[in-house]
């Protein structure tokens, strides 16, 4: 039986086994706790996924593009939002604490994008405020829909 270590925060790194005449022979099993980066990455990824869904709900017809750091410039914000003739960049962070530790060039690109159109760091603690500002920037002229208040 395979053990599930995810519930206690341990990741199974390697567990190779082979069957020899009905017996299971295990070789090299290594367990370790996830790094801060892996935990942060999972949380940021989940936040980003929910954010994309909410943006598409608030701005029908919007195109939300995930910028991949391996393809674009290092420091370009995570998301590009296209809506009508307007655009925005959003740099997602797992928490307000992570906002204080931007990656290389992130501050510069967020400032530059905000000067051209709209760009912000966004994290769960300021999400509604940023989405309201984005709605004003996009000039939708309709009342903000806050799914959390329903």
Explain this structure.
- With about 150 residues, the chain is an alpha+beta fold.
- The protein folds into two domains: about 35 residues, no CATH class; about 100 residues, Trna Endonuclease, Chain: A, domain 1 (3-Layer(aba) Sandwich), CATH 3.40.1350.10.
- A four-stranded mixed sheet has the order 3-4-5-6. A two-stranded antiparallel sheet has the order 1-2.
Overview features:
single chain; 150 residues; alpha+beta; Trna Endonuclease, Chain: A, domain 1; 2 domains; four-stranded mixed sheet; two-stranded antiparallel ribbon; 4 helices; globular
Radius of gyration: 21 Å
CATH topology of the largest domain: Trna Endonuclease, Chain: A, domain 1
Give the spatial strand order of the biggest sheet: 3-4-5-6
Q: What's the CATH first level of the largest domain? A: Alpha Beta
Counting DSSP E segments of at least 2 residues, the number of strands comes to 6
Query: Uncertain segments of ≥5 residues (pLDDT<50)?
Result: 1-21, 35-39, 143-147
Instruction: Report the CATH architecture of the largest domain.
Output: 3-Layer(aba) Sandwich
Biggest sheet layout:
4 strands, mixed
Query: What is the helix tally?
Result: 4
> What class, by secondary structure content?
alpha+beta
Quaternary status of these chains? single chain
What is the H/E order?
Answer: EEHEEEHHEH
- What shape does the CA trace take? globular
Cα end-to-end separation:
44 Å
- Look at the structure and give the mean pLDDT: 76
Domains (count): 2
Helix fraction, binned, reads: 25-40%
Name the beta content range. 25-35%
């Amino acid at each position: 039986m395979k053990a599930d270590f995810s519930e206690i925060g341990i990741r199974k790194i390697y567990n190779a086994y082979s069957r020899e005449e009905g017996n299971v022979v295990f070789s090299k099993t290594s367990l370790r706790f996830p790094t801060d980066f892996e935990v942060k990455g999972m949380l940021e990824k989940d936040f980003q996924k929910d954010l994309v869904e909410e943006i598409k709900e608030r701005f029908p017809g919007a195109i939300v593009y995930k910028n991949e750091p391996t393809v674009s410039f290092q420091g370009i914000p995570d998301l590009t939002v296209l809506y009508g003739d307007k655009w925005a960049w959003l740099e997602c962070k797992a928490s307000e604490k992570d906002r204080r530790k931007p990656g290389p060039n992130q501050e510069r690109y967020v400032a530059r994008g905000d000067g051209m159109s709209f760009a912000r760091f966004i994290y769960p603690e300021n999400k509604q405020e940023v989405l309201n500002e984005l709605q004003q920037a996009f000039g939708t002229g309709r009342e903000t829909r806050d799914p959390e208040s329903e």
